[in-house]
Amino acid sequence: MDDHETTAKYNIAETCAASISVDELVALSSDKTTSPLSTNLKLVYGDIRGSDATRSALAGLYSAKASHIFPKENILLTPGAISANFLIFYTLVQPEDHVICHYPTYEQLYKVPASLGAEVSLWRAKEDNKWQLDIEELKAMITPKTKLIIVNNPNNPTGSIIPKPKLEELVEIARSHNITILSDEVYRPLFHSISPMDDDFPPSLLNMGYPDVLVTGSLSKAYSLAGVRVGWVASRNRSLIEDLASSRHYTNISVSRLDDHVAGFALKEATIHSLLGRNIQLAKRNLATLEIFIERHRWACDWVKPVAGTTVFVKFSKMGKPVDDAVFCETLQAKTGVFFVPGCKCFGGGVDFKGYVRVGFVQEESVLKEGLEELKKFMEDEFEHIPVAKR
After folding, report:
1. What integer pLDDT is reported at residue 3 of this predicted model?
2. Hey, how many other C-beta atoms are within 10 angstroms of the C-beta on 277?
3. Is 287 left (phi over 0), alpha (psi -120 to 50) or beta?
4. Closest CA to 203 of 156, 159, 278, 153
5. Peptide bond into 165 cis (omega under 30)
6. Chain mean position to CA 377
7. 207 CB-near residues (< 8 Å, 6+ apart)
């Protein structure tokens, strides 16, 4: 993405809900007396594990509708969820360990464990079953060396969820084998197409009754604040957090004190509901716009409509054969300025997901609408020249 996103006119690959400024954050908050930025704040390291304000706000979110209060001491702030995930792998994964990872997903989640010497098995979601995972396949993958099961819920790139009943099965399997679960929940709680009253609505894995769970999140995706480099890892198993905190002395030390201050403002009661409300409504409107485009171009593209998060996998085909998604994306941006992420190249290792592109649809409405209009023209004038994928 580094080679393309800064030059794109219409970045419809972006995975963050449309970003906001500090002024916009203040406008969303009902607290008009407190500033998210304090110019008299001394720029020391600050609280090494994260401020009480930010960790207390996060603990409150994880305690909502839970049977047990979640303690702030069981949360560790990191510079983004990417650092939280890396810290977990660096601390827990050893050479010759076995790791099972949800697939497709963000490549970090399976490539970093592999780089540390672990054997990684990919637990493949099925497109023909709405990108759902097969629990029986998971059972068959487990070995005596299985150290970690990794899931991404809601999922990037598909926008699918692992429903509550399947999470319950996952937890029981992990418990029976004493396996730790890492749940990357960076797109939580942006649930735009499922209600909390739905039986399938997924709670955070922290609240499923199994202590050996690590959950990661950040302010980047659902909260529109990627420029505030604050993520976190949380667990009900305090010893896991202590192990991570020990490793952290040799990696990040702490998050920026300024970022932590803005994070605490964004997550407090006076701000968070308006912020999330803005993003969920934006997701709903933009998804409706994207759906109209998909339905009008069924001759060339198909999808499994997303349930949550900011992304969706869309498949482009010609006469039933998937296109070369890398050529498609390169040509599309060169001729129109519209930027998509090629699925086979970026999520399938050049083998899987041929013809797929990842669309990030929770952008400013004008970016999505204008970008889709350019895509429409491209489909009419240029799409016939895109080659199909090689076998």
Report:
1. 66
2. 11
3. alpha
4. 153
5. no
6. 31
7. 62, 65, 66, 67
- 213 secondary structure, DSSP code: E
Residues in the chain: 391
216 strand-pairing partners: 184, 233
Q: Which residues contact 334 (CB under 8 A, 6 or more apart)?
A: none
| Cα-based angle 107, 13, 127 (whole degrees, multiple of 5) | 60
Instruction: Retrieve residue 373's tokens.
Output: 């209009």
Smallest CA-to-CA distance from 383 within 374, 158, 353 is with 374
Closest CA to 255 of 291, 227, 275, 229: 229
Provide the token pair at 132: 């759902």
Omega of the bond leading into 322 within 30 degrees of 0 (cis) = no
CA distance 24 to 19: 10
CA atoms of 193 and 160, how far apart (whole Å): 10
Report whether pLDDT(7) > 80: no
The 3-state DSSP class for residue 84 equals: helix
Under the banding of pLDDT at 50, 70 and 90, the label for residue 166 is very high
Contact 173, 136 (CB under 8 A): no
If residue 202 lies in a helix (H) or strand (E), which one and from where to where?
Answer: none
* Cα separation, 338 vs 5, whole angstroms: 10
Q: 365 CB contacts (<8 Å, ≥6 apart)? A: 282, 285, 286, 289
Position 290, amino acid: L
The pTM of the full predicted model, rounded to 2 decimals, is 0.95
Residue 203: is the preceding peptide bond cis (ω within 30°)?
no
Paired tokens of 123: 């637990």
- In sequence order, the 6+-apart residues with CB closer than 8 A to the CB of 328 are 316, 340, 342, 357, 386
Q: Are 24 and 369 in contact (CB under 8 A)?
A: no
CA atoms of 250 and 233, how far apart (whole Å): 17
Bond before 79 cis per omega within 30 degrees = no
1 residue type, one letter: M
Number of Cβ within a 10 Å radius of residue 295: 9
Chain segment 259-300, per-residue pLDDT in tens: 999 999 999 999 999 999 999 999 999 999 999 999 999 999
